[in-house]
Amino acid sequence: MDINNETINHLADLAKLEFTEIEKEDLKTNLGRILSYCEKLNEVDTTGVEPLIFMSENVNLLRTDEAELNYSKSDALRNAPAKDSDYFRVPKFR
């Protein structure tokens, strides 16, 4: 793929970004390097290699949901910047 000013301008428009001419030249160089590296990946022989869908063999490995009381009210309110007996005090909002 050829990276030219039109491509950079199109990408900048999609991303709602503005670039100087120097930045556009840097982007063309960097995008060209990235694309050439991706082309090298096409040279790798992947016949007989199954696509990797999951990183491990575990599927839907979930823990049981158990309710625990970890903190008492006084422990939870100890570091609160503002409190009122058993409650946190927060500013009003609408």
Commentary on this structure:
The chain is mostly helical. It has a domain at 5-41: Histone, subunit A, CATH 1.10.20. The chain is 39% helix and 4% strand. It contains 3 helices and 2 strands; from the N terminus they run H-H-H-E-E. It has helices at residues 5-15, 21-41, 73-77, and strands spanning 83-84, 87-88. The protein has a two-stranded antiparallel ribbon with strand order 1-2. The protein is flat, with a radius of gyration of 28 Å.
The secondary-structure element order is HHHEE
Q: Radius of gyration, rounded? A: 28 Å
Question: How are the strands of the largest sheet arranged?
Answer: 1-2
The overall strand count is 2
Low-confidence stretches: none
Q: Kindly, what is the distance between the CA atoms of the first and last residues, rounded to a whole number of angstroms?
A: 53 Å
Q: Sheet with the most strands?
A: 2 strands, antiparallel
Share of helical residues: 25-40%
Mean pLDDT score, rounded? Answer: 88
Task: Supply the CATH class of the domain at 5-41.
Answer: Mainly Alpha
User: Approximately what portion of the residues adopt beta-strand conformation?
Assistant: under 5%
- Give the CATH architecture of the domain at 5-41: Orthogonal Bundle
- Discrete helix count: 3
Global geometry: flat
CATH topology of the domain at 5-41: Histone, subunit A
Structural class, please? mainly alpha
